[in-house]
Specification:
The complex is a heterodimer of chains A (571) and B (337).
Chain A (H helix, E strand, L loop, with lengths): L1 H17 L11 E6 L14 H7 L7 E3 L5 E3 L19 E5 L14 H12 L14 E8 L2 E6 L20 H4 L11 H5 L7 E7 L3 E6 L13 E6 L3 H9 L6 E2 L6 H8 L4 E16 L30 H9 L3 H8 L4 E3 L23 H10 L3 E2 L5 E3 L2 E2 L1 E7 L2 H16 L3 E7 L1 H4 L17 E6 L7 H4 L25 H10 L5 H17 L3 E14 L2 E2 L17 E2 L2
Helix pairs in contact in A: 6-7, 8-10, 14-15
Chain B lengths: L1 H28 L14 H10 L6 H25 L21 H36 L4 H15 L2 H15 L16 H38 L2 H8 L4 H29 L3 H7 L4 H10 L3 H29 L7
The chains are: A alpha+beta (571), B mainly alpha (337).
Amino acid sequence: MTNKRRFLAAASALAMLAGPAVAERGADGELKIIYWQAPSTMNPFLSGGTKEVEAASMVIEPLARYSNTGDIVPALAAEIPTVENGGVSEDLKSITWKLKTDVMWSDGTPFTAEDAIFTWKYCTDPNGGCAQTTYFEGVSAMEAIDAHTLKISFTEPKPFPYTALVGSESPIIQAKQFADCMGAKAPECTEQNFNPIGTGPFKVVEFRANDVITLEANPHYRDPAKPAFAKVTFKGGGDAESAARSVLQTGEFDYAWNLQISPEVLTEMESAGKGKVVVAFATSVERIHVNFTNPDSALGPDDRSVFKADGSNPHPILSDIRVRKALSKAIDPVVLTEIGYGKTGKPTCNVLPGPDIYASTANEACKTQNLDEAKALLDEAGWVPGSDGVRVKDGRRLSFLYQTSTNAVRQEFQAIIKEWWSQIGVETELRNISASVFFGGDPNSPDTFQKFYADLEMYTNNFSGVDPEAYMANWLCDKAPTPATQWQGENINRYCNPEYDALAAEFAKTAGLEARAEIAKKMNDILMQDYVMFPLVHRGGTSAHANSLEGVLINDWDSELWNIADWRRAK
Amino acid sequence: MLRYAIRRLLISIPTLLAISFIVFALLDLAPSDPTANLPLTIPPEVREKIRLSLGLGEPFPIRYLKWLQQFLINEPLAVFEQLTGLSIGDSENRLRVLSWATRSPVTDLIVERMPQTLWVVGMSYVVAVLIAVPIGVISAYRQYSIFDQVGTLISMLGFSIPTFFTGLLLIVIFSVWLGWLPSIYDTTHVVNDWESFLFQVRQMIMPTMVLALANASQISRFMRASMLDNLNQDYVRTARAKGVRERTVVLLHVLRNSLIPVVTVIALGVPTIFGGAIVTEQIFRVNGIGALLITGIESNDIPLVQTLTFIFAILIVLFNLIADLLYGVLDPRIRYE
């Protein structure tokens, strides 16, 4: 970390030498940003949506954030506490953050550890409906050692203690402003939720929900030379394609976010020469999940797609690893990526594709399609081609129901994969469900991804932050969604492997990045080599910025606007 | 007439109550989840807490009555207080209809979006009427002339080409190729001098024209048909035989009679102005009422959708009544007892 800081210091010294024009707050006028999904509030604790989190990240800041390379860098903290520098206790049960001492809220009052403690209380109030409580899980107490030293204690040893108040999803709000907004009062504080006072480079002038946010440079921002822009207009609404057009073709806006549009269209727009498309990769992977339980519609609600701990309800076909492997071998992730994502995606063979230190290299074979091997595997498993080309075994057809959410790219993927599978004698029935129902989690709906009333389903998942511990714990036996848990649970596959569970338990106890990465890779490899999922595409966050905008470091680990204080107009 | 109007108003109360129940029940019973659009990284226990904090824990009849009270009593009071600065009763603790996505009162959102909707959609309606009536009159008077043929063609085009196509076409021509007009509407723009007025006009041209074309086509067809009906009537021949000037015959006798059905069409179209133009607002990012409704639907913001839909219902009932009353004004033969 010290090396990095030395480097940063050197870099900023160089920048100052390069041009004296850089160092004046507000010298570059107005910055126009377009988010085609408009933010509905500036309080990320009450929304949890990416758009709200990113809009708020211009105003309110966490103790530390993730850089574009996935490293933790200080924001309101003076340095990152570690076991080596004494910030993290030897027993891993507490972390002590030293805060920057010169930070002011935009109303001119000083920022102290009390604000951090208030934020923790605010979000963990059981009546508040806070969307980010996971960040505060395992926190038993927070105390202010002095005005600028914050000690966070955990109920159990935490090998990765950088969760509470780290990253754009758990920023610090001002205690004074939100004092009357605790618990059930939280949603009624419209004025506070729309105009939070922050420590960030900008402050809200006017917030129009789902439309436009006007911000101006925070006069009390800690770096007197920043931000370079005096005003930010943050417009929302419309669709991704016209947002891209407004930056790349008409040049009306400087920055457009989340441009999930057809790769050809994006390339063509970029050729107008007004701006460029930038892509950042984090952990989003589009994958096909295999159902390990029996989704037969003839079964009752207590059996259909329900995991039984004694293994009595296995999938009649997919519990055979040879069938799963054959299905995977028949897929070509390289072709799919090219068709659906262009340069905004990379083919992948891992469910845990990043940060780099966690990415396994053991599964690269999945990138090569091999229909012959797939056929041989099915032959070996006893599935023989029937009269219509579909394989049969013991009077049962090799036929699957393959579902996903309604989305042009996903339906294209379904059609292509169906064609590949038909070439190896597998019949596929396709189904797509409206995203709000599919991801809706309504326990009464038969169509949610958690209920998984299908053999295979496809969607993208990821984890926020850079530590995969919680994410990799998704595939534990006891996390399978069942009627008893109201179909809640992250083990969508209903996968159960004692070896995997043991690794997860070890992961939770292991400190030290290297050792943790070793275990994470092992867990990823088990999932991949057992063909629990077929990863297809490592999806990047795609944005576009005008050529005249400098300093953009697109970041998929944190808010894309994480370094907006450094953005400037090209001279 | 006054008694008739009062009677009609009273009848519309049970109608509106029935509508409010249907709107509330339909949206409430439809499968939807306000937390559906949150990232998958937010765990189910947290989602459940969010749902509870939105008041979804209570049974249906109680939520309906609460919403009705908030909508009919609390919201009008709150708007009245904001307009006048007075405070009536316990205004601090009065519960208002809160949108789930923004956690702010629904009426505040609507009030915030009214200006751009009225400016763009309202102006397009005015332009549409101003274009449509003369075109309809001339087309009918000179039936089968070149003017009529061209007018018919343009009306057909305007009527059959959807606004999402004309909107995009205009953007590509005027924003991308020529670079004359902005493709994105700036709702924060304040008109305070000639310069800013010109900008307002420039940013309104495209959305207004797209909508005006669609509306004008329809109205001009009605106008033309109605004029044609009247031009062949006996009273027109009588007027001409009396030696009345042609101008007076057409503009005074025929036009006034022909306007009766057209006024109905125009009046019934007024609620759609307040409803916004969903597609056009979305394309040009006018972010008015139409866009508000769409984002409400997309984010499963049920209170917002319920309130907006119910307001539309009220407006439709109201303008139906106004259209009926206008009949009486325009046509002396119609009397309401």
